[in-house]
Amino acid sequence: MKHQNPKSTKKFSLDLPNIIPAVIVFVALGGALAYGFIQISKLTKSIDSLAAETSENTARLSQDIVVLRAQNTGLSELLSDTRQNVEAVNTKVGGVEETVGSISGTVGTLQKLSQIDPELLKKYSKVFFMNENYVPVHLTEIPSDNIYSLSRAEQFLTEAWPFLKKMLDTAKSNGITLYVKSAYRSFGEQQSLKSSYTVIYGAGTANSFSADQGYSEHQLGTTVDLITIGLGGQLGGFDSTKAYQWLVDNAYRYGFVLSYPKGNSYYVYEPWHWRFIGVKLATFLHNEKRNFYDVDQREIDEYLVNIFD
Ligand SMILES: [Zn+2]
Questions:
Q1: Does residue 95 sit within a domain?
Q2: CATH number for the domain that contains residue 238
Q3: Which of 82, 176, 201, 216 has a CA between 20 and 30 Å from the CA of residue 110?
């Protein structure tokens, strides 16, 4: 039995061990391959789903961007609107501040105006007469040094007196002698004065140089008839004196103007008759070479608030 077929036994026993590893290798390779396929397939699926997901996300993001852009545009518009509103509010606030400022200015002006007699700058003409009951609120007696005739006391509006005094004092220091011939006249005094003129000269002549308007200014307490030495106490001829020329050149500095200058169409020429209207208005008239009675009443009234400045 030992020698019967040694070769075949040996061959068989030799082949089997050779096949087994090959099979193992084959199986292993197959498995690996299968595993690889599975993994690749899985990976492909993952990539596909990732791609799908990415594209989905991209689409969603695009949508989001569109929405955000729209919102941004809306916000920009809102911001722009808000800015405009803020500017509009600022403008309004500025306007309100200006209004408040001008209101407080106006209130100050009105308070000042309420203490000033509006009659002081009124024009009295053949049409506009002064109320016969009008009496100045405060009157001051003019010192005798400044009065020509001591036969009667002369009074002047208290608030305007410092301006007249300064004018007379300055004239004196410049070698010009000026006296007050006549100052405040009440309506009654003016009436009796007029009737005495009427008796002497007749109604027509009296009206031409002693008309209501002319003496109405004396009723204000802010008007004076001035006289100087060398005229024998007369008013006539005053315009040929140095004193008159000094007044023409300087009276405005103290707030005085000639009411009825030569050639005026309101009243007879009265070179001695000077009315206080305030430095500001008198300076304006002097610079513009205009006469008080030629200026519109509304324009004159704007100076009332500054009459005692
Ligand atoms: Zn007069």
A1: no
A2: 3.30.1380.10
A3: 216
**137, 117 in Cβ contact below 8 A?**
yes
Per the confidence metrics, is the pTM higher than 0.85? no
Q: What is the pLDDT of residue 198?
A: 57
CA 228, distance to chain mean position in Å, is 48
CB 164 within 8 A of CB 154: no
Whole-number Å distance between alpha carbons of 9 and 26:
26
* 132 belongs to a structural domain: yes
Give distance in angstroms: CA of 175 to centre of ligand 1. Answer: 24
Position 175 scores a pLDDT of 97
Range of the domain at 50: 1-90
Q: How many CB atoms lie within 10 A of CB 70?
A: 10
For residue 217, report the distance from its CA to the centre of ligand 1, in Å.
7
Task: Kindly state whether residues 45 and 191 are assigned to the same domain.
Answer: no
Mind listing the pLDDT tens digit for each residue in 40-69?
778 878 778 777 877 887 788 888 878 788
Q: How confident is the model at residue 13 (pLDDT cuts 50, 70, 90)?
A: low
66: left (phi over 0), alpha (psi -120 to 50) or beta: alpha
Q: Note whether residue 233 is domain-resident.
A: yes
- The Å distance, Cα 228 to ligand 1 centre, comes to 15
Q: Could you tell me which of 187, 110, 115, 120 has the C-alpha nearest to residue 157?
A: 120
* Residues 59 and 158 reside in one and the same domain: no
Count the domains in the chain.
2
Q: How far is the CA of 126 from the centre of ligand 1 (A)?
A: 16
Has residue 102 been placed in a domain?
Answer: no
